[in-house]
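Lecture 7 notes: from sequence to structure.

We start with a single chain of 446 residues. Read the sequence below before looking at the structure.
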Amino acid sequence: MPLPAALRESLTARLRDASDPAPGRHAAPPAVRARRFVRRLGAAGVRRAEAAGLLRARQAAHQANVRLDGVEQTVSNLQPVAVQAELTAAQAQLTAAQAQQLAEQLAEQAEQLEQLEGTSSHFDAHVHELTVNQELLKAELRGLQHTIDELGWALAPGAGLAGAGARVAELRERVNGLDRRLRALPQSAGAPNGPANAEPATGRPAPAAREPAVPQSALFDYVGFERRFRGDPDEVSDTLWSRYGERLRQSAPVVDLGCGRAELLRRLQALEVEAKGVDSDPSMVLEARDGGLDVDQADALTWLADQPEGSLGSIIATHLVEHLQLDDLVRLLELAASRLRPGGILIAETPNPASLVVLGNSYVMDPTHVRPVHPSLLTFLLEGAGFRDVRLEFYSPAQGYHLPLVDDPSAPGWVATVNQAFGQLNHVLFGPQDYAAIATTPTSPD
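Now the structure, written as tokens:
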């Protein structure tokens, strides 16, 4: 292929320039000049080839753009009518068999729906029946609840069903107490019959039988009374032990005068502390003995009089002194002082009449109480009986009755005076309900 005229002239000029040396320079050999010319010629060809390739790429891109414009024009010319026609053609392709199958499926579903409607009607009737039965059961339950409430009020008048359990427990204890008394009757019935006031040996009148220190009544159930108003035996045991347990354990042998249900005695014997109880109520004594406790049935004064002097380590009498006449109380304290060893302890707990709520509540409730014993009076009697170091400890303030005090730092000054007055009223009216006089015998004779 012949070269274009312009290109041929350009190459001829460049070859001529390469053969003529520049001024001031020596001409290169012909071979060298030829190589240089060839290199320059090759570089120019490469540049022209690259330019030609770029031109071809531009032409291809232009053709692609033209084609894309054609596609867009085709898409834009597509009409909804044509699409609808295609959908109509697709729907026409459904065969008669397919239409029949669809109809059968619809019929089957309609039949199932009818069955469900029938089941729903039956279920509604059953629900209505259950609702009626539920209302009838509610009526029966209300009647049963009314009957149970009446039974509760019959078992525990004044308390109702909530107190029926405690009353049943009381009845059980009463039955047990009667059973113990009946079992004790043959022993008393078998005692020899003789002159009531004569000694067999001398024929002289015997001393008149001493009346028990605690008033007794065959018509009054003191066991049931204590069960209801004194509290649960376990709680009473815990309270007594927290107050006096450690002192008594360190001062054996221990005697509990008027031990009653023997709550404290049970704790002492469980710890293998030598302890004995004394009570004049036969039912309580038998109950304690049935529990394996060492309890004597005797009057407290008679029992103490029979003990050797200085033979006991400690004596406790809880709620006993208020049951005694003054002479019996003085005698009891004197006997206790003589039967305790030097340094022995006497604990006498009793209701606190210095707290007026006691006199109007728990004290007057017990018909066997003889007289309240004021703390100062009991201290005086203990010192007169020969005890030393008499201390008073007070328990169980009636805090539920306390008048509220004003607790406001920003209150005026007169509020402090009112609070002080209320505090004094709380102490006098609703102070400690029990107190204990704790006295020790002299460690050496005076």
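Residues 231-440 form a domain with the Rossmann fold fold (CATH 3.40.50.150). Keep this in mind for problem set 3.
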